Amino acid sequence: MSTFTVVNPATEETVAAVPSCSAEQADEAVARAAAAQAAWRSVGPGDRAALLRRFAEVVDTHLEELAQLEVACSGHPVGQARWEAGNVRDVLRYYSAAPERLTGQQIPVPGGLDVTFKEPVGIVGLIVPWNFPMPILGWGLAPALAAGNPVIAKPAERTPLTAIRIGELALEAGLPEGVFQVLPGKGSVVGQRLVDHEAVRKIVFTGSTEVGRHIMAGCARQVKRLTLELGGKSANIVFADANLERAAATAPSAVFDIAGQDCCARSRILVQRSVFDRFMELLEPAVRGVAVGDPRDSATEMGPLISAEHRARVASYVPDQAPVAFRGTTPAGPGFWFPPTVLAPVAADDPAFTEEVFGPVVTVVPVEDEAEAIAIANDTPYGLSGSIWTENLGRALRVARAVETGNLSVNSHASVRYWTPFGGFKQSGLGRELGPDALDAFTEVKNVFIATD
Ligand code: NAP
Ligand code: MG
Predict the structure, then answer these.
(1) Ligand 1 pocket, residue 362 CB under 6 Å
(2) Strand locations in 147-248 (E)
(3) Which of 109, 182, 214, 355 could be bridged to 114 by S-S, CB 3.0 to 4.6 A?
(4) Of the residues 84, 127, 216, which should be mutated to test ligand 1's pocket, given the most ligand atoms within 8 Å of the CB?
């Protein structure tokens, strides 16, 4: 069997060799999921809830182990990795309440009784990217299981270790065999097979818009249910009436967290012209002060990029003649490091301003007023997240309603809360994850009419 070598991006040392599954092994996993399906959907709601709660508790007792695996595999700072492992536990707990509340409707009709059921959609294929291996796994896994579906997860080739471990923890918690399986391997082989397999009824894909389009076309052949979470080029809009100190102090973390490899990265900062120079003065020390270094150190704020290839791609957005306003630092020695980088002024057609860089590169541009800020924020095929900084409540609401994006924060950069829906407008995605309605993406509504006449 072929294997993939997982490399620590901070040290370039080998972490593990992981088997790369074949298309035949994917078929075998689908057969196991199919065999487990009937029993899983008939587990009573209270028992399914209890199993999910137990799964959450087993994850909870392994948080540090999972966090350390992610540090080694992904180079995420350990504080961030602990949050990610805790998010898996929290999302499992949140959706453990769902099986007992998965109610349908009773609808008034003539001549009988009409009721609806939320039936499990069937086997779910969950294709996960390398940037947030744990949270994105949990966001698909927890509601899919809660709704009564078996899940086959395909982690990204570079970052399979936490998913594999969470698969073991599921068995330890008592989930029946075949209900949750993890299949490491290539996207073009295992991922593609899940898309093509007739018995897989739903795909949840998070990743690049390019691969997402290809998967959507593949699902179309079988009218397969699909949730897509894709790229972003989000705007951080700072108005003259904002608390500029806070806006500038927090702008670096909004784009440089996990080295900018975040679909929600606020990689375009739009600053009202009258305060542009003052904002840049405040931003400079905040960027130079980002603690870039050993991800195992709890004081570290930013680690390396995922791979040498990805670093080369990020670097292509900052050629020698690029308008670098100021930069942060990187450690010497091995590792795929790239410094936090601020580009200003940038041309409107600069690829660093128009394309998703997926690295620690941010562009800052001046805007005249609300209308121009909204126009520039919306001038992108993406629409995932964004921030608005202003002390004027009316302006905050006007701009929040006008920006075409799925997740906005006012005077904050937080995009993800497991209680609230998350997903993109336009080419940033299709459907929503998290929040109270996520079960709808893993169920089919069945209407049943019973004649009383
Ligand atoms: P990617 O190349 O699109 O890969 C994502 C996943 O799809 C990986 O598991 C990959 O496997 C698999 N894959 C690749 N080709 C496939 C195919 N033909 N059929 C089925 N699966 C296939 O994305 P990435 O480079 O890992 O992640 C970066 C991108 O994800 C960015 O664009 C980012 O914005 C986006 N993202 C979006 C969100 C969101 O919620 N909207 C969240 C995180 C990331 P391999 O690892 O084997 O290639
Ligand atoms: Mg890729």
Answers:
(1) no
(2) 151-154, 180-182, 200-206, 225-229, 235-238
(3) 109
(4) 127
Q: What is the distance between the alpha carbons of residues 353 and 269, in angstroms, rounded to a whole number?
A: 10
Q: Is the CB of 191 under 6 A from ligand 1?
A: yes
> Terminal CA-to-CA distance of the chain, rounded, Å?
63
Q: Does the global pTM surpass 0.85?
A: yes
pLDDT in tens, 239-265: 999 999 999 999 999 999 999 999 999
Strands (E), 82-232: 106-107, 112-120, 123-127, 151-154, 180-182, 200-206, 225-229
Annotated active-site residue 264? The verdict is no
C-alpha pair distances (Å), 255 with each of 31, 41, 130, 182: 42, 41, 17, 31
Fold (CATH) for 3-230+427-451: Aldehyde Dehydrogenase; Chain A, domain 1 (3.40.605)
Domain ranges in the chain?
3-230+427-451, 235-417
Q: What are phi and psi of 398, to 5 degrees?
A: -60, -45
